[in-house]
Amino acid sequence: MVEHKDIQNPEDYGAKHYAKFRYLLFSDETPREELEEICMTLAHLPTDEARQLLAEFKNSERAGEVGWLDCAIDENMFHYLSPENEQEERDFLALKMVGEKDDRIVELMGECDKHSHRIRKYEIELEALEQLLSDDPELKYSISTIHDLLTMEKNHLEEAQQQIEIEEKIRMKIKESIQTERLKNLDPMDISDFHFDGEVC
For 26, which DSSP code? Predict the structure, then answer.
């Protein structure tokens, strides 16, 4: 295996370097050892260009020649995302909160589905009871109960829908507040394995 590298300074790498890396990674004539050398460099180069090159190489025919490529991709992502100052730490946390809001919205949507399903069932049962009422006046009590249950479920549905609207607005504002460029368009799932001290995992 190629020798381990320290973190690379992004300022030492320009467009020509990445173009050369790209050419060599996708060339049939590049020796395996050189592929490994490039992947090791990219793994320790915390830039979006390095991240994209590794992702593209992962889908290439020669990716299997670098047995530790997945580790290189994970290590690059770690270095790429790791906050370096207070603003980046704040934005990193904000992105995690966006993911939490996404989870909460999905949960609320599931609650809406359950309430909608119950409403449809109660409406069907109410229709049947009303058709039978003329034959059995005592069913009026069952009808009253179903009306109460319908009202309750409709209220729960409305509350869940309103909560979704609130959560979506909060999510949007949190997302808009992120200033760190490399985090602005990142999917919260990309940082799901990263945890802050004191965070409940």
Answer: T
Q: What's the token pair of residue 84? A: 């370096």
Residue boundaries of the structural domains of the chain: 10-81, 86-189
* Cα gap 115→150, rounded to integer Å: 10
In 3-state terms, what secondary structure has residue 45? coil
φ, ψ of residue 155 to 5 degrees: the values are -65, -45
Q: pLDDT tens digits, residue range 119-150?
A: 999 999 999 999 999 999 999 999 999 999 99
Select from 168, 65, 53 the least CA-distant residue to 108. Answer: 168
* CB 16 within 8 Å of CB 48: no
**pTM (2 d.p.):** 0.70
Give the distance, in angstroms, between the CA of residue 150 and the centroid of all CA atoms in the same chain: 35
Could you tell me the sign of the dihedral formed by the alpha carbons of 25, 33, 6, 76, in that order? positive
| Contact assessment for residue 38 and residue 21, using Cβ atoms and an 8 Å cutoff | yes
Contacts of residue 113, defined as CB under 8 A and 6 or more positions apart, other chains included, come to none
For the record, the structure tokens of 27 come out as 């060339």
Report the pLDDT averaged over residues 104-131: 97
Residue type, 112: C
